[in-house]
Each structure stands twice: as structure tokens, then as C-alpha cells.
Specification:
By secondary structure, this protein is α/β, with parallel strands linked by helices. It contains ten helices and 13 strands. It is about 30% helix and about 20% strand. Strand 12 and strand 13 form a beta hairpin.
């Protein structure tokens, strides 16, 4: 990217704070090797507006008041984002009066400034409801409790105008994070474009905007997420859509790598770790041919550290009960969820 501004790292802990890293971000931990409680994750193969609504309604119990729907609205003409008509149907049925919330990007592109961002929203069809660019009028900070990189995180200033948040996430790969689930959608997507994202991505005083990577990047991003979900408490819920899963993020727009991973379905939970872990388990349950590119992207970036660090920070459970909404609510496994997938 062409240029960026280094920002004072006032959100960092002191240099004397422990920053020892666990190097496990390229190692997948099978379900039987995990410990702790189980959360509930709902699953449907119905990739449609109806499926999205059904998944959301399982986890919507505490979503009320002024609701922000955290959605990646995509670079101009991005081919893989969640279909607008699905989101429109969800808002019209279950989230009347809700607002889609976004922040500006840290890189120069179609959403770098608020003016550019609003033009891109029109191009991509996000015109059926209000869209609040959270950092349009500045920033605020939220505390990071128990973090080793941050004591606070800079987020879009409008975030605290909301009573509740729905993280509506297109699950896919990610160039820096390995994969982008609910954790990435919130941790990067709520951090403001100039300060918070700089704290996560960049060591000050050197020319590489993206020098923070692998385990350290996963931990910083996860601490950012924790600041936001701690703010909302029980008034946040998560829906992950496993469709058009390029190894590239939606921030790459039309330049995203071709999709080769089969479509799967839609998951929902009130536990952010459980839902992202379930999506990862589903990827790993695929055949080698089906998941080769996605697993390579996840492990080469050490993206699995997102999951282990969420557990260390007490953000949820990596064990879960997977409920099949298509078959009477029976418990299934990740292996069951990927039976009979159609090649993309």
C-alpha cells in the first residue's frame, strides 16, 4: 500500500510486561484433545436468506435496543461477500431499525476514507438500511482486560452508541490472519482505520505497514475483539456464513484468489470461540482435495493461534454441541456437516 501514518502506541502495555508467545498457531488440535465445557453452535446447510434467518433466530435472545450489525461490506464489486438480499431479509424480519456498522480501512483502497467508503457502499448495494462508519467522527478507547499487548483498544467512536451487536461474518481465508471468522470481523472491523488498526498491524518506526504477523498478530487482533465483546457483554451474538470461501479476505475485492473450497452452510452461536472453532473443525473435516488451499493458508499464517488465545483469555469454549437445524435439532459432528459437499 502506498502510505500510512505511524500512530503513538499508547494502547500498549509497558515494555516490562510479559510478551512471551505460544508457538502453536500452525498446529490443529483435534476435538478429543480439548478440555473444558461445551457451548452450543447451530448449523444449517441452507445457504439462503431463509437459512440465515433461521440460524440467527436461534441466538437472538438478548439482542435488543439500538442494534449494530457488524458486517464486512467489501471492496468495490467484491464477488464473495454475503449477499445483500440475505441481509436485507434478515433485517426486515428480525432486526427492524438495526444499522450496519463498519470502519474505514488501514490500507489505501475503496474504503480508506469515509467519502470513498460511502461510494463503495453504494456500488456494492448497501443502500437498504443505514450504514454507520464508526470512525467517521473520531475514535474512543475500550479497556482490554487481561491482555499482554494492550491495556486498551482504539475503536470507532460511534461503537458505544449501540446497545447490542450482531457479528454477521463471511467466513473465509485471510492473507494475514490465515482465516477470517467472527474474531477477525470484530477485532479488525471495529478497530478504527488509523489508530486501532495501526496498533494491531504495525511496529512504529519501521517502513513495513504489515510487519506484525503470525502469533503476535493473532494475539493483538484477539485482544481487540475482547475489548469490544466485553463492552457488549451478553448483548452480542455471532453468525458465520461458510460460502464463497476464498483464501483471500473480502478486503481484496476482485483481486481475491479463486474459490476452490466447497460451500458448507451457516453457523450461529452466542460463543465467539465456539463458532470460529466449529468453522475450523468443519474445514479440517473436509477431504484433502476440498480443504488443501484453506488449510495451507491457515497454517502458513499460524492462524490457529486465534483459537488458543481466545481460550486463554476466557472468551469462550473450544468444545461445543453442534445442532443440526435441518434434521430436527439433533447433535452432529463436523464430519457429519461436510458429508456430500459439492465441489465449488
Amino acid at each position: 500500500m502506498k502510505k500510512f501514518v505511524f500512530v503513538a502506541m499508547c494502547g500498549l502495555l509497558s515494555a516490562s510486561a510479559s510478551t512471551a508467545q505460544v508457538k502453536d498457531g500452525n498446529k490443529y488440535v483435534p476435538y478429543e484433545e480439548r478440555t473444558g465445557n461445551e457451548s452450543v453452535v447451530y448449523f444449517t446447510r441452507n445457504l439462503s436468506a431463509e437459512g440465515l434467518i433461521k440460524a440467527y433466530e436461534q441466538v437472538s435472545g438478548q439482542i435488543e435496543g439500538h442494534v449494530g450489525v457488524k458486517l464486512h461490506t467489501g471492496e468495490a464489486k467484491g464477488p464473495n461477500i454475503i449477499p445483500r438480499e440475505w441481509v436485507k431479509a434478515l433485517l426486515e424480519k428480525d432486526l427492524k431499525g438495526a444499522t450496519v456498522i463498519e470502519t474505514n480501512t488501514y490500507y489505501e483502497g475503496d474504503r480508506y476514507t469515509t467519502d470513498q467508503h460511502r461510494k463503495t457502499l453504494k456500488v456494492n448495494g448497501w443502500t437498504f438500511c443505514p450504514v454507520d462508519i464508526l470512525d467517521e467522527q473520531g475514535t474512543t478507547t475500550l479497556p482490554v482486560v487481561g491482555g499482554k499487548w494492550f491495556k486498551k483498544m482504539s475503536v470507532g467512536g460511534h461503537l458505544t452508541n449501540y446497545d447490542a451487536m450482531v457479528a454477521l461474518t463471511h467466513f473465509k481465508g485471510h492473507t494475514q490472519g490465515g482465516f477470517g471468522g467472527s474474531n477477525k470481523n470484530i477485532g479488525i472491523g471495529c478497530a478504527d482505520g488509523r489508530i486501532g488498526k495501526a496498533w494491531i498491524h504495525t511496529t512504529p518506526g519501521q517502513p513495513n505497514q504489515w510487519d506484525i504477523a503470525e502469533e503476535e498478530f493473532m494475539e493483538r487482533m484477539t485482544e481487540s475483539t475482547k475489548a469490544t465483546i466485553d463492552y457488549f457483554g451478553p448483548r452480542v451474538t455471532y453468525v458465520n456464513v461458510m460460502r464463497n470461501m476464498s483464501v483471500s479476505c473480502d478486503c481484496e475485492g476482485v483481486a481475491a484468489a479463486p474459490v476452490v473450497t466447497p460451500n458448507v452452510g451457516i453457523l450461529s452461536s452466542t460463543d465467539i470461540l465456539a463458532i470460529d472453532q466449529a468453522c475450523i473443525d468443519i474445514i479440517y473435516a473436509m477431504t484433502a482435495e476440498e480443504h488443501h488451499d484453506m488449510v495451507e493458508r491457515i497454517e502458513s499464517r499460524h492462524g490457529l493461534r486465534q483459537l488458543s488465545y481466545m481460550k486463554e483469555l476466557g472468551m469462550g469454549n473450544n468444545r461445543y454441541v453442534l445442532i443440526d437445524l435441518d434434521n430436527g435439532g439433533k447433535r452432529i459432528t463436523a464430519q457429519d456437516a461436510v458429508k456430500g459437499l459439492k465441489p465449488f
